[in-house]
Amino acid sequence: MQSYPALQQHILIKSDGGKTINFSHPNAVKALNAALLAHYYQIEVWDVPAGYLCPPVPGRADYVHHLADLLAHDNHGVVPTGKSIKGLDIGAGANVIYPIIATRSYDWKMVGTDIDPVSIKSANSIIDSNSVLIDSISIRLQHDQKHIFTGVVKADEQFAFCMCNPPFHQSAEQAKAGSQRKIQNLAKNKTKRGSRLSTVRSNEVLNFAGQSNELWCEGGELTFIQRMIVESVDYAQQIGWFTSLVSKKENLSSIYKSLRELGITNVKTIDMAQGQKVSRFVAWRF
User: Fold this and answer.
1) Which one of 12, 108, 204, 207 is most buried, by most CB atoms within 10 A?
2) Angstrom distance (rounded) from CA 185 to CA 248
3) Residue 228 host element (H or E)
4) Mean of the pLDDT values across residues 157-165?
5) d(CA 218, CA 11)
6) Of 118, 115, 120, 224, which Cα lies nearest the Cα of 168?
7) What's the domain range around 124?
8) Cα–Cα distance measured from residue 120 to residue 143, given in angstroms and rounded to the nearest whole number
9) 212 pLDDT exceeds 80?
């Protein structure tokens, strides 16, 4: 609270005396994120436009720290730090969370890309508002939605890694159904905890609402990652480790098959866990 006093107005007291916030309310979740970023990463100004994803910081930090461990394997067990390590975040979004955590934790230099001009504007605003980010993060607009690396990776650039949190759903309808399930789960969890919080309403604005390009693409995450694998062949000499989150475990077999078909055998799957949530990312290199 000392790092971000504005969080105080969103604190609620549970029936057992513990403290929480209303995780179904976007302003409360944004305040919590801003507080975490201020306390742990010295980010003084952070916000996202209404309707854009406001991702939980701890889960995003997990990906970054596991990436650091991956790089350490090639550096005698020591995590490499400093601006000589350059990373690429595919789909940095309006929140630019991954680049923030990466540069503030390890002093890496980060490049973030996105297909949405509003996200680009928001990310640049966050960077320009925080002196600790200005020389460490740059943002690029991907003009061609059919490409992932082409058009944003310059011919003479070298990256130690790329990271990506691909759109999860296959359609707008599927994304909407997924959001409704989250509403129901929030309501169930509140009832189980015995929290003195108001009932979640189905028409309540979701903190995880997101724009269409953030939530879904044709074919969902599997098709996106397979496109990423195919295009990675052309950037084998410019990017060390190619990585992507894989939300659906059942997609792993198809991803492995796509990698094998292109003769890519140096593949790792790194499991991560935050509470009861289990996730993973796949990493490959040439």
Assistant:
1) 108
2) 18
3) helix 220-232
4) 97
5) 39
6) 224
7) 5-171+207-285
8) 12
9) no
pTM given for the model = 0.84
**Beta strand extents in the chain (DSSP E only):** 12-13, 19-20, 86-90, 109-114, 137-141, 159-164, 239-245, 266-274, 277-285
Amino acid sitting at position 119: S
pLDDT, tens digit (0-9, with 9 covering 90-100), for 220-269: 899 999 999 999 999 999 999 999 999 999 999 999 999 999 999 999 99
Q: Residue 199 pLDDT > 90, yes or no?
A: no
Specify the CATH number for the domain of residue 228.
Answer: 3.40.50.150
Phi, psi of 113 (to 5 degrees): -125, 155
Cα distances from 219 to residues 11, 169, 171, 227, in angstroms, run: 40, 8, 8, 10
Q: What is the pLDDT of residues 137-153, one digit of tens each?
A: 999 999 999 999 999 99
Block residue for tokens 């928001």: 122
Q: Is position 115 within any domain?
A: yes
d(CA 121, CA 143): 14
Q: Is residue 183 part of a domain?
A: no
Coil vs helix vs strand at 206: coil
- pLDDT at position 175 is 44
pLDDT score recorded for residue 159: 98
Token pair of 164, please? 């990506």
